[in-house]
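Reopening this ticket.

The earlier resolution said the output was attached, but the attachment link was broken on my side. Pasting everything inline this time so it's all in one place.
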Amino acid sequence: MKNSFSRRSFLTKSALAGAFSLSGLSETFGTGYTNAVDDNPKLSAPSDLKITDLKVAYLKGGGRMFIKIMTNQGIVGYGEAVDAVAGTYHMVKRFGFFLKDQNPLNIHRIFDQIRKGGVFGGAQAGMYIAVLSGIETALWDLAGKALGVPVYQLLGGKFRDSVRVYMDTALYQNRLPKPEDFAEAAKEAVDLGMTAVKFDLDQANDPNKYDRYNWTAGPAEVQRMYDQMAAARAAVGPNIDICADMHGRYDFPTAQRVAKVLEPLNLMWLEEPIPAENVDAYAEIAKSTSTPICAGENVYLAYGFRPYLEKGAVDIIMPDLQKAGGLGEGQRIANLANLYYVPFAPHMVASYLGAMAAAHVCASVPNFMILEWQIYYHKDPMWKDIVNFDGKEFVEKGFIKVSDKPGIGVDINEEGLKKHAMPDIPFFE
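Inline output:
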């Protein structure tokens, strides 16, 4: 295809040739200079940009999906979606038919067209929105590359150059960890440069549980939770933030009781002590304790967050940008929360591609608080295998530096990802 910059290139070459001829400089020097101009990456022709194909790959386990959007100008955008994506291959391909020949720079229009077109197909939550989140993210990446600017610039600019992260210790309760295990995990996170750390408190196999189905916690369970978190606090002192996650498994009286018991430990937050369906119950819990209450990792779109904010049901919101609607929707959620003076602390279990994508949103809003990070990113080499990024480490001293490269600033290493891809599902086909 004829490049829209061909006339500029011709004029540049003509001017340079004339200049070098008049000055008596060598033809070799002039040729080298003009070749360098031609070889240097240039902006696309935005009005002529068209989507030609959409491809998808899944990481082993099926819980993480990677989108690749291709264009007629050779520009490629990558996106990622998590959790609600297993078994969605055909849904992705169906969306791909809709995307073909569209201009990828019309991000909001494409997002709204697909969402509204699926009103009777589940376009309010779950798999539909999770897949759409990955596609939307890839469109932002593609747009940034086409226009030569980082995603945060497309989102209106940045408030900060780097975003703070907290370490999820992955100290899973099914292993029956003791308080001293909590202390060691907290110290390990701090040794890695973290200033905030999170632990899970929900324990299905707690030997003190009276009923394996009813998750009303008895006195010994509540004491176990307190002892574990108290050990973490004692290990790192008062200046490190610690928070606890209950994964929405408990009931109303347990949530109130645990939040009250943990008040002396000055937590950054208590996360989802009950399921997220009952906004009124959350409001009552939040009013009953000085422990900040956080929720939202399984809430979708800005519409889903509106009642939580209107009713003062949570002190902190935590949408997962890889399944709640993507980057533009994430910014809308953050801005909505800001109207209520509620901090924005996204949930994040994606790869470093998804983490950096989320970081662009976190940089672009005033009420960003902190972003989730996982300790296994530091222990399993797979996470570095599957991406191309600048630098040796993902996180330094508890912060992610927001990339200034065009687009997200992190690309998929397709050869590396292929080694860890979901078997029996086409890989970027």
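Reporter confirms the inline version is readable. The longest strand covers residues 51-58. The chain has a mean pLDDT of 91.
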